[in-house]
């Protein structure tokens, strides 16, 4: 029994490639390059892959703009920053700048990236006591370690260094990174 996940035994059959492509986009939204890679991995010839992807785009079954909006909305709603979203889009064959991703994410979610970063910090670290109250050296070092962890947390989530710094500064005005 042949599965659509294995390499095809008919690499020059455009109808079979189309059916495989339909199954793929029926399961989840794909970019044109993702679909191209998928069909190539299944063993279809370059010409059949190009023809099938072009047909899917013409029939609007594959739409990079729609895919981009979906991915940005999904990633931003999961608390991921523009840098990380941009890298994911680039892996999927869509090349946008960080500022374009940031503005699209804000438009789709209604939440500015800086506010999202501050909200993530509040949920992850609770209320950080950042006021300088003449604490002893040990408490100062502990506080700096927490700030470093919070900063790295935002960077790993895909926020730019600038947004991470501003989110921490919002917790304590004048904080030096």
Secondary structure elements and their pairing?
Elements lengths: L13 H14 L4 H10 L4 H13 L5 H14 L4 H10 L6 H12 L3 H13 L11 H20 L4 H11 L6
Helix pairs in contact: 1-3, 2-3, 4-6, 5-6, 7-8, 7-9, 8-9
Tally of distinct domains: 3
Q: How big a fraction of the residues is strand?
A: under 5%
Number of strands: 0
- Classified by CATH, the class of the largest domain is Mainly Alpha
Low-confidence stretches: none
Major beta-sheet overview = none
H-E order = HHHHHHHHH
The end-to-end distance, rounded to whole angstroms, is 60 Å
CATH architecture descriptor text of the largest domain: Orthogonal Bundle
Shape: elongated
Judged by helices, strands and strand pairing, the structural class is mainly alpha
Gyration radius, in Å = 23 Å
What would you say about this model in short?
The protein is mainly α.
Report on this structure.
This protein is an all-alpha fold. The protein has three domains: 14-58; 64-109; 113-171, Arc Repressor Mutant, subunit A (Orthogonal Bundle). 66% of the residues lie in helices and 0% in strands. The chain contains nine helices and no strands. It has helices at 14-27, 32-41, 46-58, 64-77, 82-91, 98-109, 113-125, 137-156, 161-171. α2 (32-41) packs antiparallel against α3 (46-58) and α4 crosses α6. The termini are far apart.
Q: What distinguishing features does this structure have?
A:
177 residues; mainly alpha; 3 domains; 9 helices
